[in-house]
């Protein structure tokens, strides 16, 4: 499978790692968009909007010679979007909410080029085991979840908390590879 070179509008090391895994030639673009949740906005709409905004922002700063790929991931429980924790106490609150429960990890992937923009949403379910205070203390002390949606990394130490996954492992990491390849093929073929 050969895909044309792209720009990646993300500095996430996980997204870069996943694209390298499937041998995509890419160049990273640093973009910044307002990721605030709008009033009455559903989690699905939020994730798709932010991914699309990142792709558009990437397109604006690119050389416009190849498609721009962007993504956004949110952890959602009881309809609440859990972003990246800014403090240890916020991380503790998030992990306590996830403890012993099933939650959703939503990742939207967007591609922008000169002719069109496309966005797909991928939704996964993750079930955590019950976490003790000691488990939460240990994980927070690791520092691993500080820059991750929901305060944890599926590919890291938090794997010991995950009882069950229904969906895409790469999607939970932040870039669902199946959907990403479908979008890139669509753009490469010139479909609108």
Automatic annotation (TrEMBL):
Transmembrane segments: none annotated. One of its GO terms (cellular component) is cytoplasm. CDD domains: Maf. Signal peptide: none annotated. The record marks 14, 73, 155 as: Important for substrate specificity. Keywords: Cytoplasm, Hydrolase, Nucleotide metabolism. Its main location: cytoplasm. Its cofactor is a divalent metal cation. It is found in: Cytoplasm. One of its GO terms (molecular function) is dTTP diphosphatase activity. The keyword Ligase does not apply. It holds the Pfam family Maf. It catalyses: UTP + H2O = UMP + diphosphate + H(+); dTTP + H2O = dTMP + diphosphate + H(+). It comes from the Bacteria. The active site is at residue 72. InterPro entries: ITPase-like_fam, Maf-like. Its EC number is 3.6.1.9. The keyword Transmembrane helix does not apply. Nucleoside triphosphate pyrophosphatase that hydrolyzes dTTP and UTP. May have a dual role in cell division arrest and in preventing the incorporation of modified nucleotides into cellular nucleic acids. PANTHER family: BIFUNCTIONAL DTTP/UTP PYROPHOSPHATASE/METHYLTRANSFERASE PROTEIN-RELATED (PTHR43213), BIFUNCTIONAL DTTP_UTP PYROPHOSPHATASE_METHYLTRANSFERASE PROTEIN-RELATED (PTHR43213:SF5). Belongs to the Maf family. YhdE subfamily. This is dTTP/UTP pyrophosphatase. The lineage of its organism: Bacteria, Pseudomonadati, Pseudomonadota, Gammaproteobacteria, Thiotrichales.
